[in-house]
Design a protein that fits this description.
two-stranded antiparallel ribbon, 434 Repressor (Amino-terminal Domain), globular, mainly alpha, about 80 residues
């Protein structure tokens, strides 16, 4: 599959939320710290449910946490 096309602002949002730790975010969303770390590092795409839970923790719209970088992928598949 290659690189993860879902970009996120989790690290920045955690810093802005009184430096919320990965573990605290994990606890509040019902996943492991390793899962949060993998999402932050672009190694794992969260489920839609988890993406919404993360946005709810930060009290921001989903698109302020995650964005989809279609880039060349869509261009390639349309040809």
């Amino acid at each position: 599959m290659g690189k993860c096309l879902i970009k996120n602002n989790i690290r920045k949002l955690r810093f802005m939320a009184d430096e919320l730790t990965q573990q605290e975010l994990a606890d509040r969303t019902g996943v492991t710290r390793q899962t949060i770390m993998a999402i932050e590092n672009g190694k794992y795409s969260p489920t839609l449910e988890l993406a919404f839970k993360i946005a709810l923790v930060f009290e921001v719209p989903l698109n302020e946490v995650f964005s989809y970088d279609a880039g060349e992928e869509i261009t390639k598949s349309e040809k």
